[in-house]
Amino acid sequence: MQLGLSEKEVDTYLTVLKQGEATASEVSDATGVSKRYVYSISESLEDRGFIHVDDHVVPTKIRAREPSEVIDILTNDLSEIEPALSERHAQTEHEIQQFDVVKSRTTMLKQMGSFISEANNELTLSIGYDQLQEVGDELRAAVDRGVLVMVLVNGVSADELDEGEFGGIATIVRVWDQPAPLTLTVDQQYGVVAPIEMVARSNTNRRAITFAQREIVPVLTGSFFGNYWPMATQAHIAEPRPLPAEYGCFRHAVLDATLHLRNDRPVAAEATVTPCRDTDDRRSIEGTVIGTRQGLVEPATNDFPIENSLTVKTDNRRFSVGGPGALLEDFEAKDTVTLTRA
């Protein structure tokens, strides 16, 4: 009845299903439906893929299809209309709400995929190992676009993983054998939070929250790096970009500078900055990167979870540069950072 069948259609189908094969008279006797109406119902059920009517024999035989075959037919029918539905939906898609409560696991995953597809600079994701591939294509596309993709895979031990398992799916992956809530942040603008139960099962009354608020997303990012990232084991690090390279994400510049320096490749940095404690005057700085403060990759060199900075040396001084919102560093990088070989 959930599939739109009438009560008499349901009775007819269940009778044929139970017997496997029956004549119209047998179905009529079992259901109380007239023999003529049984023929009419059988034609409708055959069109839907539930049964097969063999009218080449006398009396006509009504055979039930294998239930798995029926499910495949119904699934294919839905899949065929999905593009048309999606196109119609896209025409009326509303602007992302500041806060939105999501009841469906499928809707939540779709919204996550949409957020990831819009990422330009960086994203953080905490997700269960069993659910990772559900957004795998979107993550790989983000990596290919040059987005800094930091993924915490929970519910799996590092000992259980194959070498190279996370290649291409993220810039950095850490794994943790404990369960954790699903969280996603994108470009410090979009976010998703969902309880473990909603991620693991579709039949639950738990709810997810999606939001688009620049004041809230950095708090979630800080929780990601402060509460979960340090607990996990490093499992994958992508190769840094070849230099020279321009970075719209300061955290990405810190990561690549760190990796290049650890491989004995000297790095220089150029950026437009504002002094953190003096004035609002913008100026350009250029110098050799002699160190970094970060907790993105092991070993960590920062004093607190969200500290990411470059230590730069020029001819006559040495200073620290932080990203947008920097407070403790000498300078705050406002726009892009360019790294070159020193």
Question: Would you mind describing this structure in some detail?
Answer:
- With 342 residues, the chain is an alpha+beta fold.
- It has three domains: 1-93, Orthogonal Bundle (Arc Repressor Mutant, subunit A); 99-237, Endonuclease, Chain A (2-Layer Sandwich), CATH 3.30.870; 245-341, SH3 type barrels (Roll).
- Helices cover 33% and strands 29% of the residues.
- It contains nine helices and 17 strands.
- It has helices at residues 7-19, 24-31, 35-48, 67-91, 105-117, 136-144, 196-200, 217-228, 250-262; strands at residues 21-23, 51-54, 61-64, 99-102, 122-128, 148-154, 172-176, 182-186, 190-194, 208-212, 233-237, 245-247, 267-275, 283-293, 309-313, 318-322, 331-341.
- The strands form three sheets. The chain has an eight-stranded mixed sheet with strand order 4-10-9-8-5-6-7-11, sandwiched between helices. Strands 13-14-15-16-17 form a five-stranded mixed beta barrel. A three-stranded antiparallel sheet has the order 1-3-2.
- Strand 2 and strand 3 (61-64) form a beta hairpin.
- Helix 1 (7-19) packs across helix 3 (35-48).
- The mean pLDDT is 89.
List the helices and strands and how they pair.
Layout: H1 7-19, E1 21-23, H2 24-31, H3 35-48, E2 51-54, E3 61-64, H4 67-91, E4 99-102, H5 105-117, E5 122-128, H6 136-144, E6 148-154, E7 172-176, E8 182-186, E9 190-194, H7 196-200, E10 208-212, H8 217-228, E11 233-237, E12 245-247, H9 250-262, E13 267-275, E14 283-293, E15 309-313, E16 318-322, E17 331-341
Parallel strand pairs: 5-6, 6-7, 16-17
Antiparallel strand pairs: 1-3, 2-3, 4-10, 5-8, 7-11, 8-9, 9-10, 12-17, 13-14, 13-17, 14-15, 15-16
